[in-house]
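Sequence only, no structure available. Ideas?
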Amino acid sequence: MISIIYLFIDFVIFLLELSQVLWDMTLGQILSQPSLGILSIGMWGGFAAWFVLTFSILLVMEGLSAFLHALRLHWVEFNGKFYVATGYLFHPFTFKHLGKDDDF
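Reply:
I predicted one. C-alpha cells follow.
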C-alpha cells in the first residue's frame, strides 16, 4: 500500500515538473516580453503551442496506459490457458495438527 502511495506521489511530481517545463518553454517566454504588440500576438501562438503540447502529452500517456492494461490482460489470459495444477493441496498451518504424524 505504501509503494502505491509513493508511486502516486512520484506521478504527481512528474506532472508538476512537466507543466512547469511547458509553461517556461511557451507562455513564460512570451509573458516576459516588454512590448505590448509581441505580447498580444504571442499570447495566441503561445497558448496554442501550450495547449497542443499538453494535449499531446496527455493523449500519449492515456494511450500508453490503455496499451499496458490490454497487454497485461492478454498476458494473464494467455498464461491461464496453459496452467496445470500438478502440486499438492495447500493446508494452512494450525496448531490442531501439530503433534500428529499424518501426511495431510
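The chain has a mean pLDDT of 78.
Hope that gets you unstuck.
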